[in-house]
Amino acid sequence: MEFKEKAMIMDKEAIARALTRIAHEIIEKTKGTKELAIIGIRNRGAYLAERITALIEKIEGIKIPVGILDITLYRDDLTTIAEHPQVHKTEIDFDITGKKIVLVDDVLYTGRTIRSALDALIDFGRPRYIQLAVLLDRGHRELPIRADFIGKNVPTALKETVQVKLKEADGKDEVVILEQKG
């Protein structure tokens, strides 16, 4: 299946503004940084988590724990994504029990990735609560999952794909909508 770019919906500046707003909203909603930890879903969610954590540190002057969660083995489509899926290391070097966790991902779509992440996260302990931050919410939920912090809501068609590019992985920051050719 081939795709072509339909529209750029966020550039570098828009992504930076959205992440800054999310960082402020997290601080406000969690009433500061006490017991707060940020965990990003590998890959792009992890990069966004690092950025949000740095913004919170800049705003509050306090470094909070940040971790990276690999959900590969928790996916409900594991057998369909690859014959030999690549499993990466989860990097959570702190106890999540009793913590206010903000789980971070790039795009919220069906909700299945987040369900997998919740299953994986609970294996590490029992947090006080888990909230969800996403750069983009594109709709089309298949599970009753919603984000607490959203950079941008973008209604999309099912035939469209949202592609998030981040400088850490792709050399530049942008979000584009792709549509199927033909």
Distance between the termini: 10 Å
CATH class (first level) name:
Alpha Beta
What's the CATH topology label? Answer: Rossmann fold
**Helix-strand makeup class:** alpha/beta
- Provide the succession of SSEs: EHEHEHEHEEEHE
**Helical percentage:** 25-40%
- Radius of gyration using CA atoms only: 16 Å
Strand content: 25-35%
Largest sheet, strands/sense/barrel: 5 strands, parallel
The appropriate CATH architecture is 3-Layer(aba) Sandwich
Annotation, overall tally of beta strands: 8
Poorly predicted regions are: none
The dominant shape is: globular
**Order of strands across the biggest sheet?**
3-2-4-5-6
- Structurally, the number of domains stands at 1
Tally of separate helices:
5
Q: Residue-averaged pLDDT, rounded?
A: 93
Structure commentary:
By secondary structure, the chain is an alpha/beta fold. Strand 2, helix 2 and strand 3 (66-69) form a beta-alpha-beta unit. The strands form two sheets. The chain has a five-stranded parallel sheet, with helices on both faces. Strands 1-8-7 form a three-stranded antiparallel sheet. The chain contains five helices and eight strands. It has one domain (13-75, 87-156): 3-Layer(aba) Sandwich (Rossmann fold).
